[in-house]
Amino acid sequence: MPRVVHFDIKTEEPEKLKKFYEKVFNWKFDKWNDPSGQMEYYLVNTGEEEPGIDGGLAKREGPDDQIDITIGVKDIERYAKLIEENGGKILSPKMSISGVGYLMNFEDPQENKYSIMEDDPEVK
To answer: Which of 18, 52, 61, 68 can bridge 8 by disulfide, Cβ–Cβ 3.0-4.6 Å?
Structure first.
């Protein structure tokens, strides 16, 4: 069963917001080494004591770019088809993330926006 596997928090000032989450929740941040060198992105470790997921912190790309929830799937094409067959809408083509896998953004029938991710560390 697909589960939420990742979240992204978006901000105009990643360094400033990073400090907030470090001080309030003691989350740990590691700058991601983006192969393209274009993205300021931090991997977020939310801890090991309690069940939960880790995430990321990224620069906001527009006024509607707030928080992204990512659901892990085994076959991104299959789930894209299921999304559309059940009243959802695909918002972006399948994107490759080097060393990570494939990502696709979608909207549910109530206009909530999410992402689906297929892990594939061989992706370039």
So the answer is: 68
Contact 46, 95 (CB under 8 A): no
DSSP states along 64-122: T--EEEEEE-S-HHHHHHHHHHTT-EE-S--EEETTTEEEEEEE-TT--EEEEEEE-TT
Percent of the chain at pLDDT > 70 equals 100
- Indicate if the pLDDT at residue 45 is higher than 90: yes
Residue 20 host element (H or E): helix 14-25
More confident site: 57 or 34? 57
CA–CA separation, 7 vs 43, rounded Å? 10
Reported CATH class of domain 7-66 = alpha beta
Provide the CATH topology of domain 73-124.
2,3-Dihydroxybiphenyl 1,2-Dioxygenase; domain 1 (3.10.180)
